[in-house]
Write a structure and sequence with these properties.
The chain is of the alpha/beta class. The protein is built from eleven helices and 14 strands.
């Protein structure tokens, strides 16, 4: 990983369960080991906040602040490529703010410098849960890689919310037509971003899954809520408008927007059959593992560098075959932080080249 930008040190004060903590990170593998509830996941969350600008837990600023503390801070030092960068976060008065090299910035100013890919036990349910979980997995990855993606997603979500308010609170045909047009144009552009990103992920996903289960044929497809997509933004927007017109009476009755990217599906299949409906738990977990590894590879393809890979207590949830797949994958240039309660999940040679840090009292 010579020369590549990497996280080298995390420092927190007044954050979550920690009054004060500093962790020096290995450019390869850092293993955080300790009993349950000693704060290992809190450390992973801080790393995600300072690289992705958000947390998988979706906490408020008050929830991030240590009980009894008036101010909380976190700082992550990044080094490499001839650069030294400090990402900061402050928690004060119920608000969260970010800095980059001491200057205030938005969450968007944190994203993309050193992206992170998180894999935690909750993600293992991604295949069998609702479509919203799969859309969120695609979108949360996309916003780290492309600021336009983040802006489009935010604009689209606000437009859906405003249109839903109109549907619920009073039908005004001329106003609804304005919101329909805005929704169709923004939604068409978001669909182009989503499908392009999924196309990038798909090749890596299939390759990784085949390495885990060579006798199975995986695939992943994007299924829009209004049928197969036409070519180009204008044509997709026209499809979207037609679908809205067709569902108008249903939408007025139910008070919500029933078609669009917020209703789409990401379909995983194995041997042509829906993995959600017919896949075993092992197959579903292999899909999520392959998806996460594909995210790492796509980050490298797009940005020219690997992301920080965060593995929060997933080793205990995977069998030996899938644990070996992860360890084999991270053996190269990928900076990885792993939390665990049991070092027995790792081979001796992996632990010898890793930095092992014990968290909490033994």
């Amino acid at each position: 990983m010579q020369g590549q930008l990497a996280a080298t040190r995390l420092e927190v004060t007044g954050y979550r369960s920690f009054d004060e903590l500093a962790v020096d990170l290995d450019p390869g593998i850092t293993v955080l080991v300790g009993r349950n509830a000693v704060g290992k996941t809190n450390i992973v969350e801080a790393l995600q906040l300072l690289t992705a600008g958000s947390s998988f837990r979706k906490p408020t600023a008050s929830e991030l602040l240590r009980e009894g503390a008036s101010v909380g801070r976190a700082r992550l030092t990044l080094e490499g490529e001839g650069r030294l960068i400090e990402m900061g976060m402050e928690l004060r008065d119920g608000k969260r703010s970010f800095t980059r090299n001491g200057k205030k910035t938005r969450a968007a100013g944190v994203r993309g410098v050193l992206p992170s890919v998180l894999f935690c036990p909750d993600h293992l349910d991604m295949v069998k849960r609702s479509a919203s979980r799969r859309r969120e997995a695609l979108d949360s990855f996309g916003v780290q890689l492309n600021e336009n993606y983040a802006k489009l997603l935010s604009t689209y979500e606000r437009t859906v919310e405003q249109r839903n308010n109109l549907l619920r609170d009073g039908y005004a045909p001329e106003l609804l037509e304005v919101w329909d047009e805005s929704l169709a144009m923004t939604g068409a552009q978001l669909l182009l971003h989503r499908t392009a990103l999924l196309d990038r992920i798909r090749g890596h996903f299939i390759e990784v899954y085949r390495a885990i289960a060579p006798h199975e044929e995986p695939d992943v497809r994007y299924l829009p809520s209004f049928g197969e997509l036409a070519d180009g933004r204008e044509a997709i927007a026209a499809q979207f408008r037609d679908a809205l017109a067709q569902r108008r009476e249903d939408e007025l009755r139910r008070g919500c927007t029933l078609v669009g990217p917020h209703r789409d599906e990401v379909l995983f299949t194995i041997d042509g059959r829906s993995a959600r409906d017919f896949g075993s738990q092992g197959q579903q977990r292999s899909i999520v593992l392959a998806w996460k590894i594909a995210e790492v590879q796509v980050t490298r393809d797009i940005l020219g560098r690997y992301p920080l890979l965060l593995l929060d207590d997933v080793m205990s949830e995977l069998d030996a075959t899938r644990r070996d797949a992860i360890v084999g994958f991270i053996a190269g240039e990928i900076q990885t932080v792993i939390t665990t309660t049991n070092l027995g999940y790792f081979a001796d040679d992996t632990l010898r080249r890793a930095r092992v840090i014990r968290i909490g009292a033994e």
